[in-house]
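Entry for the shared binder. Reason: the reviewer on the internal report wants the predicted structure included alongside the sequence.
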Amino acid sequence: MDQTGPRRTALITGASAGIGLSFARVFAEHGFNLVLTARREDRLQAIAAGLAQQYGVGVRTIAADLADPDAPKRMTDELTEAGIAVDVLVNNAGFGLYGPFTDTAWDTELQMLRVNIVALTALTKLLLPGMVARRYGRILNVGSTAAFQPGPLMAVYYATKAYVLSFSEALANELAGSGVTVTALCPGPTASEFQSAAQLEKSRLVGFLRMQTSDEVARAGYEALMKGKPVVVPGLTNWLGSQSPRFFPRRWVTAIVRRMQDPRQA
């Protein structure tokens, strides 16, 4: 719903494209001031100017590479110095990498771990105490349907998303009654820059499923976040897929995912 009274502020990571950019639009539509972060400063500034003009909200940009372990602290220090309290944290930044673990680059996987897990956890750790003290806060962690099963040929990525889901559900329980809620958004394959960045063109999974748009995913995430739902899987097909691993032996589930990912398995 649209806000009444003083504007609240939403911090969105990975806001220069894809689901993050869609989240920026959705929150601006609903009257939130924004703090947008991503690596591409020129892109962020162009987005900020457009949103401010279209929706009349305040938009601050922070260019940051969340693969840098010091980035979350620098970001929150800058906001504290500016007197900006974050009411909503959207941990959207993340990326994947396709290929056998023996062949993929460790440097890239280390960056993935830092962005998908460490930065998400650090920003939550840094911003959560203020939310609890004010007795209001919303945290949305962008996971994936990958969180619900192992992922051969994307082993590290699937594991990072399993962490995001587990961490989010545990925090949601811890914070019950505090005025702060935590939601894990677990979309399936989404039409965005993610596929090319992750080198997923060879995966049969991407070609097999109808991909939702980033706008569809962001709107589903926003609605679930505002309702305080702990987990949301947008789309009936994605939801059914996320539940199916519960009914099969784990080795079957892993084998099915491998078959879906591997272009050599017809």
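Summary line for the report: The chain is about 50% helix and 15% strand.
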